[in-house]
Fold:
Amino acid sequence: MATYVIQRLGLMLLTLFAIVTLTFFLMHAVPGGPFVSERMLAPEIEAALNAKFGLSDPIWLQYLHYLRGIAMFDLGPSFKYPGVSVNQMIADGLPVTLRLGLLAVICVIALGVPMGIVAALNRNKWPDTGVMLLATMGVAIPSYVIATVLLYVFALKLGWVPTFGLDDWRGYILPVLALAGFWISFVARLSRSSLLETFEQDYMTTARAKGLRPGQVLFKHGLRNSLIPVVTVLGPVVANLVTGSFVIEQIFALPGIGRHFVLSITNRDYTAIMGITIFYAALLMVMILIVDLLYLWLDPRIKLSRQSA
Amino acid sequence: MIGPILSVRDLRTSFFSQRGEVQAVRGVSFDVAPAEMLGIVGESGSGKSITCMSILRLLKANGRIKSGEALFDGRDLFKLDEDEMRDLRGNDIAVIFQDPMTSLNPTLTVGEQVIETILRHRRLTRAQARQRAIELFELVRIPSATARLKSYPHEFSGGMRQRVMIAMALSCDPKLLIADEPTTALDVTIQRQILMLLKELQTRLGMAVILITHDLGVIAEVTDHIVVMYGGMVMEQGNVRDLFARPRHPYTQGLLAAVPDLRDDTHHRLTPIPGSPPDMAHPPEGCPFAPRCPHTMQQCVAAMPPLFDGARCWLQHPEAPRVAGVNELEPA
Structure:
């Protein structure tokens, strides 16, 4: 087990290295640069800036410098915001994003899975139709529309929650819902179909034939088996949610890192783009590792083979 | 004489889909005596499994028992409420299914799956239930029983899994065990072991067993009575010896002719029954076997034959023409 985790971590480092390399060279293949904007800089100033950030060095040298930084967890200075490092950008935005993201993850699990259960248990009856209608809307309607409608109804018209800011707990409700809406719906649909499939299994008939109560049949025999596909998507979902959303952060005026991610691209803020990409990639890989470890616990048929263990 | 432990009368079960009603079981009646082994034989689609799932009331959501009664120990199973039925399942009536690969939950240890059944129906502590599970594993001869409790189903072979299923079914000393094709999914060598184990346990524990199968060879050795089903109905019933010695229904005769006889040295081919079973969404008015029967008469297509002393065939009517080998003994 421990060897397996160490192996996986080693593999992750390798993957990360590939990602760093790819983003680095892709970035430099994109036309334009951080200091080419509408406002024309004097050539001398641009040259001086390029020299300061090492942009006039040969590209392989820039790459090596960057790698050295990464190895020491230094994502470099931002090209656009003088005196601010990318590490700092992430550190500033992360607490807000992380809090929102984790709350959204909790919502996805605590609402999505039960919604799927209710729908599956009442297949083709009104609770199923209701949940599926809601979930289909949640998957189909973009988050910014949901966010805007939520804001209009609950903040503007009813005044139950503030329109922006996170000064008290009520401020979190709308952004979290808007952020999680899609994934709640997605997970609800997935759990429903997965459960319905599990209900068809022979061992479910066995469980009923043993005289077990409906609760035992559902939770002990049904849920665990049907959660496997749900856990599969949950990994990437967590990575996605805790890295924030540009749109939601923009609409609710939240100082998260999702905003930096998008702005850094339009700004050609090389180090910021790469830093945030690498951060996201690392997070995603950790989540996938956690999911894979969860499988071991959920499904005893999955065993670490001797070669990898 | 002691009355039957289970008495099924005029059971009718249908499935409803967008295509309409599929009449899977159309008026089935039979009795199971205490401590006897009853065989129900039939091709797939003959309604044999549906009959048993109806008795247990474990039909799929679109299935419905339309009429009939199933008297078990004097109580009509179809009139019990769901709670009473649940107390009965796995306790007084237990089942073994066809495929031991899929009938055990892959995410729970086999021990847990046996123990939970015991705990559901008996007032025992977990430790006592575990002890009982070990005894059961020894009873069905699973080697190193104590250690194997902690194994998962995928760590067992097919035959061992079926033994686990049997242990689970026997956990609460059922009065009636329904074995739905318990050997069909197993290797031939294992089939016999499991069958003999079932027979041995049946005699030893004195329980009644309904053995559902499509394999007449399986049934001949172990059962006392046989019910032959076709098209959702009982075609012929009687005790094993008579039925094998003098099958009276052309369908039963066809089934027997399709079984290889290893003592037969002549190299003749097996005789298959031509045609295929009827579509139960549009069941025929007359005898369901008429389209495939070598002795069909006008009467067979026109009207459903009643059971003439255990055989549902117009040829058993006192005024029917004599056909050699069917209603007339072949010349010696």
